[in-house]
Each structure stands twice: as C-alpha cells, then as structure tokens.
Design brief:
Blueprint lengths: L4 E8 L2 E6 L4 E5 L1 H5 L10 H4 L3 E2 L6 E3 L4 E2 L2 H9 L24
Antiparallel strand pairs: 1-2, 2-3, 4-5, 5-6
C-alpha cells in the first residue's frame, strides 16, 4: 500500500522520521500517544522508545516485539497531514448489465 512504512529513523525527543512506499516522508511526534497512557505509557522511557522497528508483515512501526504499534494509516496522516488514498481492491462494472441479457 502507498502508506506502508519503508524506512524509519530516530529524529529527537519522541519523534521519528518516516518514509512511505509512495515516496512521501515526514516526522511523527509520538508524545501525544505517550501522554494518553495505556500501552504507550512504557515508551516514556526514551531508551525504550528508541527500540522501535518496522514490522515486515504489517509495514508499520512497532515496539516490544510487536506488542505496541500504530496503524500505518495514522502514521501517514501524522507525518504528511493527509489521509492515504486507498487503492481499489477490484474493478467492478459501473452499471450491471440488464437482467436477462448475456454479459461477455
């Protein structure tokens, strides 16, 4: 998908610079996720925050062996300010053929 994370590097503080499959890139500040608490609270420890990786199956940033992650669509929005455009899963006819006619 065009919003898959293909590269990530630590910037500063709780910020990561991310590159996406469609060529766009940007910086995501994770402080707002961390301040909400919950599963992200453990990332307050900056040494743990820096131990991120890109999950090869989900193409998103993960911590703690995949126990903590953020959806790649959200990362794309946070980094670029735009929601990713979804690619159609399949082509369908704009209008179905009339009932009782042969369709080729």
């Amino acid at each position: 998908m065009n919003y898959d994370v293909i590269h990530a590097e630590y910037a500063d503080g709780y910020r990561l610079k991310l590159a996406f499959a469609n060529g766009r890139d940007g910086v995501v500040d994770f402080l707002k996720f961390i301040e909400k608490g919950g599963v992200f609270e453990v990332l307050k420890e900056i040494s743990l925050f820096k131990q991120f990786s890109i999950d090869p199956d989900w193409n998103t940033i993960v911590w703690n062996g995949g126990e903590i992650d953020v959806a790649p669509e959200m990362l794309y929005f946070e980094a670029t300010g735009n929601w990713p455009v979804r690619e159609p899963m399949m082509q369908v006819a704009e209008e179905p053929p009339p009932y009782g006619t042969d369709s080729e």
